[in-house]
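FORM 7B: Structural annotation worksheet

SECTION A. Query
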Amino acid sequence: MSTIKLGANANLSEAKGRSWFVALRFSFVDGLDFSGFRCVATELQSDIVVEVKDVRFHLHKFPLLSRSGLLNRLVFESRDTQKNRIRLDEVPGGPEAFELAAKFCYGMPVDMDASNVAALWCAAVHLEMTEDLEDGNLVSKAEAFFNTVVLGSWKDSVTVLLSCGKIHAWAERLMIVQRCTESIAWKACTDPRGVRSSHGSRMGSRAQSPSRRSMDLSSSNKQELMKEWWFDDLLKLPVDYFKKVMAAIRVKGMKLELIAGAVALYALSWLPRRSEIEYDQHSFRGKGRLLLEQVLSMLPRGKDLVPSRFLMHLIRMAHLLEADLPCKIDLEQRAGTQLDSAALSDLLVPALDASSCCGLKVDVDLVQRLVEHFVRQDEIVTSNYGSGNSVVLDHRVRVATLVDNYLAEISQDRNLSVARFKALAEALPDSYRASHDYLYTAINIFLKVHPELKDEERKDLCQLLDCKRLSLHSSMHAAQNERLPLRTVMQILFFEHLKLKNSSQANQKLPMEVPKIEGGGTAALQQEIRTIRCELEQMKADFSEFQNHFRSLKLEKQNSDVRSKLKKLGVRIY
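SECTION B. Predicted structure
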């Protein structure tokens, strides 16, 4: 940290309790000469007491009034010309800053550095220590140090900004905050090798922030976050100053991905943990709620600027901190628009209110709202790029797979109702699912965990399935699944029969001999056709096995129904 020493006289100062004394020694000859070696040292008693909050300064009028316009006016414009006690409770920086200003008046050594220059400058302006009274007064000294030393250094600019918290109004008035903010923003947007630290060294790579252990960032964001040397220093700033720096950085053209990454790390560093909120709700909820709203206002809008995991973390925090409804809606909209990049674990948000979630362990309604946000955003994208766009189709398939896997996960909860299952499954348009294999898996798990379902409920649930979109493996499993309604099994077998029939007809249209092709390749084509025919024969055999198994299931059910009816009539069966 850069330091400048002001003054050289060796007057003595001493602190006793909450009082501060100066022993002022003058050298003179014949009562006139204040310099020279042939003199007599005389110690003058203090003739004025300045009270700054709870500290009393026992000082002398002459050195103070000669450099402070405020003290001069308070003493000489007062009706009491003998006034020897002044109270100054509004000095910026408090007793600490006034002590440095007083030492400067006495010519004592004052170490001015980035940690105290803001308070010293503000105090000097308040005390009216300007050039009108004396050349080289404290205002000009502090301002010169700020302009020439602080603004040229990244570290010093951050340090000064950190010191402005207790003197915020004065720092804003003198534009200290604005100028430090602009300096930091300019340096962050400039090649870091050209930024001077406070010791004159070059800014190199920085250590990884401890906050990054809290979550894994997406690969693209993580690469850029590791390059940015300025993140860690800005994480120390209060949220108001951090917000000003981010705004200035954004105006200067910094990439939104980097701004979003910095805001994400700041939120992870300062937002309270769940254990802290539960331990002391009154202390953490109010501050945490305000911080969350500030973070959300700084976070740039855009798809995949931050990982979905981070947005889901903010959603959890919003519920824990009891944030207002607009804040929750905004977060859900952001997370919903990039649902295609989320992982299953991101969606497993614990249900905070068991009564509203009907005893469910996870918040199913939240996920349904996220799906609805994604679908609405997808409709806008489709209107711009068309529904056949490969990127759009890929995002739809990802979301459909994610939702079906989520359904499979929550189906293990016995409190999940058929209505909630269907509502979430139907939140996705029919065109999103290219295959119904994952949906079939979720339905099968639900039927297994809920054996008490009535036939009508099972039929209602299985109406979600499109049998035409099941793979051969899923169809084979479903045909032997005793939990499915017989009508569903018949539909699956019927569509498998159609697939086999169509495949067989296509096979018959294949030429028995492959015409010769110049340049070779005939043998390879013949081998491929033989492989296709073998596969078709195997499919026919599988279908025949399906039919036999279905007949046996149907006959077994009929026999079971007959036996139950005879038993009710009292007929014994041997």
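SECTION C. Observations
The first helix runs from residue 61 to 65. The first strand starts at residue 3 and ends at 6.

SECTION D. Sign-off
Analyst initials: ____
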